[in-house]
Write a structure and sequence with these properties.
By secondary structure, this protein is α+β, with helices and mostly antiparallel strands. The chain has one domain. The protein is 39% helix and 20% strand. It has ten helices and 13 strands. A hairpin with a 4-residue loop joins strand 10 and strand 11. The protein is elongated, with a radius of gyration of 23 Å.
Length: 323
């Protein structure tokens, strides 16, 4: 069939089972030419609240266990009425809990963002800039295989599970209640184990002393992923999935790279989009609102041909937004 003269368009809410990564012209060129995508440190993303929801909640939960006036004054928290929880008056256990939970929720998490919606006005506004935007559609099965291979090729560098593609959770009342319940169980488990370990040491147990810091890391490590996928409810329309990589605390960071940011250098990892015999697998590219959509479509097709990337549907957004 002969190709139609007019530009193809897409419906804003049409779901095809793909996940889309939004970027600008520079980003599109970088991804297709280098056959790689970036995982950026959580603290350097545009949303300043990234990671803070879980970090703040676990801090408050640990503080709620303190039952010593002197320790409360040392930490700098007001007296808290008893809540029927497992309490603690050991300064080391409390401080190590704070330290490790803060580290795993803010210091070691790298993410790559995708959306179930490939033609979303808020995303075009965020990523198009003056040069125009693009959303690159990948299948979920390809992305899961990609994340798994990335970890397998770097044994010991990340704490992350083999399935690093995770749906984001948006913080409403129900999610807040769920998080509070999970943190109550987690902190209770940590305090119990750390307290038992210190008591065993004091009576000369043959098990020896288990450092509260190591115990805290073991219990709170899972919060690295939770903090990376828990977002303010205001962002719920983005229907976001993320690659989440939690860097090993003892990693030498040999493959960590940096790029220029608005006010500071931004740390990130490159994730290869090809491996072994697996080629890059792009299913669709949607071009954001722009004044010359036909030309934009043709230039993307030429780029795909140059990079020997076939089977890609190229379409343009019909949202009437002037960037």
């Amino acid at each position: 069939m002969e190709e139609q003269e007019h530009q193809p368009t897409v419906d804003q809410e049409k779901s095809e089972g793909l996940l889309y990564h939004y970027t600008d012209q520079k980003g599109l060129l970088g991804i297709l030419e280098s056959k790689s995508i970036w995982a950026t440190h959580l603290r350097y993303l545009n949303d300043l609240s990234e990671g803070e929801i879980v970090s703040r909640a676990v801090w408050q939960e640990i503080n709620s266990r303190v039952n010593s006036d002197d320790l409360m004054q040392f930490i700098g928290i007001p007296p808290i009425e008893g809540m029927g929880k497992i309490e603690c008056n050991d300064e080391e256990i409390i401080s190590q809990g704070h330290g490790m939970s803060t580290w795993v929720t803010t210091q070691s998490v790298f993410v790559t963002s995708f959306s179930e919606k490939g033609n979303l006005l808020s995303q075009w506004r965020a990523y198009s800039g003056a040069s125009g935007g693009y959303s690159i559609g990948f299948s979920q099965s390809y992305l899961r295989a990609l994340g798994k291979h990335f970890l397998q090729d770097r044994p010991g560098r990340f704490y992350s599970d083999s399935n690093v593609l995770i749906r984001c959770r948006y913080f409403d009342d129900a999610e807040g209640k769920c998080l509070a319940e999970d943190l109550e169980d987690l902190v209770t488990s940590y305090i119990n184990e750390a307290t038992t370990a210190k008591q065993s040491q004091s009576i000369g147990s043959i098990k020896g002393f288990n450092n509260p810091g190591a115990i805290a890391l073991k219990h709170f490590l899972q919060l690295g992923i939770r903090s990376a996928i828990t977002k303010d409810y205001a962002f719920h329309e983005e229907s976001e999935f993320r690659f989440v990589f939690v860097l090993n605390r003892d990693n030498t960071q040999t493959d960590l790279e940096f790029r220029t940011g608005r006010s500071s250098l931004t740390p990130y990892f490159k994730i290869p989009l090809v491996w072994d015999s697996q080629p890059i697998e792009v299913k669709k590219i949607i071009i954001g609102p722009c004044p010359y959509p036909n030309e934009a479509i043709e230039s993307v097709k030429m780029l795909l041909k140059k990079e020997n990337i076939g089977g890609v549907e190229v379409a343009s957004s019909k949202i009437p937004y002037r960037n």
